[in-house]
Amino acid sequence: MLDKVKNVIVVLSGKGGVGKSTVSTQLALALRATGHKVGLLDIDLCGPSVPHLLGLEGRDIYQCDDGWVPIYTDESKTLAVMSIGFLLKNRNDPVIWRGPKKTMMIKQFLTDVKWEDLDYLIIDTPPGTSDEHITVMECMREVPCNGAIIVTTPQGVALDDVRKELTFCKKTGIKVLGIVENMSGFVCPHCSDCTNIFSSFGGAELAQLAQVPLLGTLPIDPRVGVLAGSTASVLNELADSSTAQVLRSIVQHLDGLTAVPTSA
Amino acid sequence: MQAPPPEHCPGVESEQAGLVSACAGCPNQRICSDPNKKLEDPGKALVAAAMKDVKHKLLILSGKGGVGKSTVTTLLTRYLARSYPDSNFGVLDIDICGPSQPRLLGALGENVHQSGSGWSPVGIDDNVCLMSIGFLLGSVDDAIIWRGPKKNGMIRQFLSEVDWGTLDLLLLDTPPGTSDEHLSVVSYLRDDSAPDSLKAIIVTTPQEVALLDVRKEINFCKKQRIPIVGVVENMSSFRCGNCGNSSEIFPAKTGGAAAMCQEMDVPLLGSLPLDPQVTRACDAGEDITAINNATTEALATICSKIMASL
């Protein structure tokens, strides 16, 4: 399983809609922009967002002798993507599965997908602490998993759920690499006044509480939302934005932990 | 230990149950294929008995997480309770891994009590009561690390062993997705002799990445034969407190909920603008009916549409 993959990073959050998939895709794109070969696995079976966010909807998965070939975003084959979204006939089809069937699918994604040599595999997860998460954590015991990045938004109701996810990490023995606080403020395009719509500092408080690093605070930036549907990295498109700065520092942080030499 | 169902199991409720090729070799094939012997889940009768005085059940659903299912549930409950003081309302939080209702309805740290007639839900207001797994946890940090079957057992207990009393409406707050929790609650509550007793409201935000999952949820309702009361679009715009101008935080590049409702042929109940005042009140568990602004006005319209449809 995943024997050609050097590093695995799981993106988690107890809460839904905090930006796990956006952080996962932009992190994968940022790692690629800094010269790494990256894989992105979407194990959110009931609500796969990665194909849409990368503009890959409608692409088909092919089977080769060794298993499924992931979708490559371009000729350079530096970003490989796998999601249940590629296996559905219609984008509106629901996946109405109970736990055991979801477990089988995720095991298949981890064992039967032909990931080439990868510096990083990013795993995007659904919200919660249930079947998908238990399965992936069980599998992570057998591979070089670096740990988990936890995404949260600042308001109390999100932090409640994220604290449960931190307990989950502790109980299943996965290292928490750090916390990313998303949607921390909105700068009004009319008057440049910054409103903390979902309150503020929640991520920092949580990081202190859990004794893990705060990897960065991402503002609500509609320009980043506009990039959805393409494989453009914030690092190149919006190089000066605070989102790009935060992503750059996360990449540096990860490279420092893993000491992966850039292949470019 | 329960054997996993075969990979292409048609489902026990299907007419093909026990008859398709995937059923060959399955230990349950004989039970599935004999229409007279079809065993009904004994839980269903218990649930029906416990719920006999609950007139209407309303599922708050969304394929997507974090769109405001729980917030909308809270807002609706508070508003309905205020507008219809003679009716009784209940809230059941079936988000097992991430229960939010205790905080949003201002009941953090409360305990449920066991009595002869079952668990007593926590009273929120004169005519509102709440049950959530949050009340059974020792601390906020406690995680429920359960696979599907255990979650289903908990939901069955919530439906059959909580002493709801007489309710006009029970609102059920759900987790995102179309999986165990949703299938269980539907199989326990759907009553084919009274198909209108269980209905659903769909919550979404305006951007396509949310609508994508929400369309799946609408198709889930259609497949499970649950009538959809309508769609609530949450976080539709944001009015700056400094300059008063509105901006779209989650741009509706594909036409937002309105276009999706037309495409999927479901009614749109209304749009709720994003409002820091309401967000803060919810975080603190305060009653929002005292607030008077665009969000609560929209809420009033949505509530009257819902009550008219039940």
UniProtKB/TrEMBL annotation, chain A:
Xref: Gene3D superfamilies: P-loop containing nucleotide triphosphate hydrolases (3.40.50.300)
Key words of the record: 4Fe-4S, ATP-binding, Cytoplasm, Iron, Iron-sulfur, Metal-binding, Nucleotide-binding
Entry annotated with the keyword Metal-binding: yes
Highest rank taxon of the organism: Eukaryota
Pfam families referenced in this protein's UniProt entry, alphabetically: ParA
Cell compartment(s), UniProt: Cytoplasm
Binding residues for [4Fe-4S] cluster: C188, C191
Summary of subunit composition and partner proteins: Heterotetramer of 2 NUBP1 and 2 NUBP2 chains.
Family: Belongs to the Mrp/NBP35 ATP-binding proteins family. NUBP2/CFD1 subfamily.
Protein known as: Cytosolic Fe-S cluster assembly factor NUBP2 homolog
From TrEMBL, chain B:
Residues that hold [4Fe-4S] cluster 1 according to the record: C9, C23, C26, C32
Cofactor(s) needed: [4Fe-4S] cluster
Cofactor binding: number and manner: Binds 4 [4Fe-4S] clusters per heterotetramer. Contains two stable clusters in the N-termini of NUBP1 and two labile, bridging clusters between subunits of the NUBP1-NUBP2 heterotetramer.
InterPro entries: Mrp/NBP35_ATP-bd, NUBP1/Nbp35, P-loop_NTPase, YlxH/NBP35
Main location (coarse class): cytoplasm
Name the record gives this protein: Cytosolic Fe-S cluster assembly factor NUBP1 homolog
Family, per entry: Belongs to the Mrp/NBP35 ATP-binding proteins family. NUBP1/NBP35 subfamily.
Role this protein plays: Component of the cytosolic iron-sulfur (Fe/S) protein assembly (CIA) machinery. Required for maturation of extramitochondrial Fe-S proteins. The NUBP1-NUBP2 heterotetramer forms a Fe-S scaffold complex, mediating the de novo assembly of an Fe-S cluster and its transfer to target apoproteins.
Binding site for [4Fe-4S] cluster 2: C240, C243
Keywords annotated in UniProt: 4Fe-4S, ATP-binding, Cytoplasm, Iron, Iron-sulfur, Metal-binding, Nucleotide-binding
Annotated organism of origin: Drosophila arizonae
Compartments, record wording: Cytoplasm
